[in-house]
């Protein structure tokens, strides 16, 4: 793993959503210095949104392809 144990934290919260369904939420945090060591930092161009989001059909196709490939339902 590229991070030391004190450079990364994660958490999981489980509970019922507003519609009564059980949900799980993950939270992953990595120290900025650890990301900079890998060449990832806020000043690099790809760290910011530089254009419009892909169209809705693109997202739908990506989800459809993922569910077919991995058997995951979204």
Give structural notes.
The structure is a single chain. This protein is α+β, with helices and mostly antiparallel strands and 74 residues long. It is 28% helix and 24% strand. The chain has 2 helices and 2 strands. The protein has helices at residues 32-37, 56-70; strands spanning 8-16, 22-30. The chain has a two-stranded antiparallel ribbon with strand order 1-2. The longest helix has 15 residues, at 56-70. It starts with 7 loop residues before the first strand and ends with a helix. The mean pLDDT is 80.
Question: Can you tag this structure with a few keywords?
Answer:
2 strands; flat; 74 residues; alpha+beta; 24% strand
Q: How many beta-strand segments?
A: 2
Largest sheet: 2 strands, antiparallel
Average pLDDT level: 80
| Rg calculated over all Cα atoms | 17 Å
Instruction: Report the total helices.
Output: 2
Q: Please indicate the percent range of residues in DSSP E strands (runs of 2 or more).
A: 15-25%
Tell the overall outline: flat
Concise overview:
With about 70 residues, the chain is an alpha+beta fold. Helix content is about 30%, strand content about 25%.
Helix/strand layout:
Blueprint: E1 8-16, E2 22-30, H1 32-37, H2 56-70
Antiparallel strand pairs: 1-2
């Amino acid at each position: 793993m590229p991070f030391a144990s004190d450079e990364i934290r994660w958490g999981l919260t489980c509970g019922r959503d507003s519609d009564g369904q059980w949900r799980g939420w993950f939270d992953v945090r990595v120290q900025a210095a650890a990301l900079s060591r890998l060449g990832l930092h806020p000043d690099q161009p790809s760290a910011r949104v530089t254009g419009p989001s892909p169209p809705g059909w693109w997202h739908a196709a990506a989800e459809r392809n993922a569910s077919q490939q991995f058997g995951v339902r979204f």
